[in-house]
Write a structure and sequence with these properties.
By secondary structure, the protein is α/β, with parallel strands linked by helices. The protein has two domains: about 35-375, Glycosidases (TIM Barrel); about 375-450, Golgi alpha-mannosidase II (Immunoglobulin-like), CATH 2.60.40.1180. Helix content is about 30%, strand content about 20%. The protein contains 13 helices and 18 strands. It has helices at about 1-20, 45-50, 55-60, 60-70, 110-120, 175-195, 210-220, 245-255, 265-275, 290-295, 300, 305-315, 350-360; strands at about 40-45, 70-75, 125-130, 135, 170, 195-200, 225-230, 240-245, 280-285, 320-325, 375, 385-395, 395-405, 410, 420-425, 430-435, 440, 445-450. An eight-stranded parallel barrel has the order 1-2-3-6-7-8-9-10. Strand 11 (about 375) and strand 12 form a beta hairpin. Helix 6 runs parallel beside helix 7. The longest helix has 19 residues, at about 1-20. The N and C termini lie far apart (about 60 Å).
Length: about 450
């Protein structure tokens, strides 16, 4: 009898185990730090950010960034820059000579620590830009470990193929000791300086398993935030909290240039919902250092559509980025290899960023990743001009309506689920929505409403 019962138990356990293999498992296994829940990112180029171009001078501006709603400061590379094959007089910060030292152009290690401490005192966080794919030709480890770099068919060190990156050479991640060195370099800044994570340059050019192990080692110290310069959901499983939404930028750029209409966004947002996990944060931006330096300023890219594009980057799904100088209405392409100080002045974008950041924090539906809510399309009778959606989390609802056209548009939202009373983002007035009410928006205008 006992044997029969034991056999029966084994059969049941086996069936349960077999059934469990079909249970869905979360794709994103990364544990996002709690402080990234409603975070707004800010990219800071120390060289350009102040007249002095130092950590100490930048530190003075931290309270201003806090007041604007910035939560995470991303410092572009802070390491010494290579001299051999240098571009320009100061060189590219992405040509790293020593991963464990501070560029004297910006100050000292103590200055960097002071900057990080000042950010932490404001309940802000700091991530460093890590260039793991390549180094300067005269990197300090070259003499000791010449085998850590790739060689071409002629047996020579080489820059990243096809690109005009003549000031750098590619690392070889088939070398386990290189992987350990780079991982130890990452944990050094987390442990010794209090860095809260990294933005990984061309993250997809480096093996994913390297990033996964590095993330695991850093999380043993404390929770970190990882932003990958890449667009691939596989990086989110065990390595990165956020990656770039290049396709969103490109689609918005084309739309603003008159090469599309509001329905052009459907492809991005359909793919975002169907192919990307909700907990995979995708970074939305209207400018970053690459776009600004090599392609277009925010004004060249978006023109009159800029405020609407910025608003969508905050109100739609994704984690928003502000590039230094955007809030000062910077209109120039900042030099990449030279000093090019940002001209700071008051302008209408700083209040917009501030208001959007506060609105994002106040409305749980707009929070990042799985903390927030999916976008639900609101049908309207002018879909080629009007882009409308709802985000809803518990009792919190946000309705957003954008006129992505050069002409004023009168329209109706035909979905009854938007019916109700809301507060206007712009002025706080209470409004009531009913299906089939007629609304009018000026060219490139937008309206945002919230209800709790």
């Amino acid at each position: 009898m006992f044997k029969k019962l034991a056999l029966f138990a084994i059969i049941i356990a086996t069936n349960v185990a077999c059934n469990n293999v079909y249970e869905p498992k979360p794709y994103v296994q990364v544990q996002h730090p709690e402080w990234s829940k409603d975070a707004v990112l800010y990219e800071l180029n120390t060289r350009h950010f102040t007249k002095e171009g130092t950590f100490a001078a930048a530190q003075v501006q931290i309270p201003r960034l806090k007041a604007m709603g910035v939560d995470v400061i991303w410092l572009m590379p802070i390491h010494p820059i290579g001299v051999k094959n240098r571009k320009g007089s100061l060189g590219s910060p992405y040509s790293v000579q020593d991963f464990r030292a501070v560029n004297p152009e910006f100050g000292t290690l103590a200055d960097l620590k002071s900057f990080v401490d000042a950010a932490h005192a404001q309940n802000m966080h700091v991530i460093l830009d890590l260039v793991a794919n390549h180094t300067a030709w005269d990197n300090v480890m070259m003499a000791q470990h010449p085998d850590w770099w790739e060689k071409d068919h002629n047996g020579n060190y080489h820059p990243t193929p096809w690109w005009d990156w003549s000031d750098i050479i590619d690392l070889d991640y088939s070398k386990s000791d290189l992987r350990k060195y780079m991982t130890d370099s990452m944990t050094y800044w987390v442990r010794e300086v209090g860095i809260d994570g990294y933005r990984a340059d061309v993250a997809g050019y480096v093996p994913t398993d390297f990033w996964e192990e590095a993330r695991a080692q850093m999380d043993k110290i404390r929770p970190v935030f990882m932003l990958g310069e890449w667009q691939d959901r596989s990086l989110h499983a065990k390595a990165f909290d956020a990656t770039y939404a290049w396709d969103w930028y490109n689609t918005m750029h084309e739309l603003a240039q008159g090469k599309g209409n509001a329905t052009s966004l459907y492809g991005f947002y359909s793919g975002n919902e169907s192919a990307w996990p909700l907990d995979a944060m995708r970074m939305m931006f209207t400018e970053n250092h690459d776009k600004n330096a090599w392609e277009a300023t925010q004004y060249e890219a978006f023109g009159d559509a800029l405020p609407a594009a910025i608003a969508l980057s905050f109100i739609g799904e994704g984690i928003p980025l502000i590039h230094n100088g955007q809030e000062a209405c910077n209109t120039k392409r900042l030099a990449f290899f030279e000093k090019d100080e940002i001209i700071w002045k008051d302008c209408d974008l700083a209040p917009l960023f501030t208001k959007l950041a506060a609105f994002k924090t106040a409305n749980p539906a707009l929070h990042n990743g799985a903390w927030g809510a999916r976008m639900i399309k609101i049908e309207n009778d002018k879909p080629e001009q009007i882009f409308s959606f709802l985000r809803m989390k518990g009792n919190n609802k946000v309705v957003a309506v954008f006129n992505f056209s050069r002409s004023p548009v009168s329209f109706k939202m035909t979905d009854a689920f938007v019916n109700g009373k809301y507060k206007d983002f712009e002025n706080g007035d209470e409004v009531e929505f009913r299906a089939d009410d007629t609304h009018t928006l000026a060219p490139w205008a937008f309206k945002i409403y919230s209800a709790s």
